[in-house]
Amino acid sequence: MKDIETDYLDEKPSRLDLRGWLLKYWSYKVPIAIICGTCLLIAAIYALVTPSTYKAKATITINDSQRGGAKNSGLSQDNIFSTANDWINTENEIEKLKSPSLVEKVVMRMKLYTVYTTGGSFRNKLLYEDIPVTVDINETSLEELTTPITMDLEVNSTNNIGVSIKANYQGEPWEKETAINKFPQIINTPMGDLEFLGNMDAFRRFGEKLHISIVNPSDKARECVTQLTAMNTSRSTSIVNLEFNSRNRALGLEFLSELVRCYNIESNADKNRIAMRTSDFLKDRLDIISKELNATDTRLQDYKRGAGVTNMYDDTKTSLEEEARYGKEALDAETQMQRINSLSDYIHKPENIGSPIPGATGLTDPNLAGTINSYNQLVAEYQRLATSSSENNPVLKNLKNQMEAGFKGVEIALKNAYDQAAIARNKLSGKAGQYNQRISKTPVDERIMTSITRQQDTKSSIYLDLLQKMEATAMALDAITEDAKIINKPYAAQWPTSPKKKVILGVALLIGLFLSLLWVYFKEQLSKKIADTHTMRNMLGNAFPIVSMRTDRKLSENQKFGNMRTIVRSILNRTQGNTVLVTSYNQEDGKSLVATALAENYAKTGSKTLLMAVRNAASEEERRNIAFYLEPSDKHLAEDLTWQSERMDNLWTLPITLSTDDLVAFVCDKRLDSVVKQLKEKFEYVIIDTVAMKDVPDEMTLGKYADVAVMVMKPGNTDKRAVEVLYNAKENNLLPHTLVVINERY
Question: Whole-angstrom Cα distance, residue 242 to residue 228?
Answer without folding.
Answer: 7
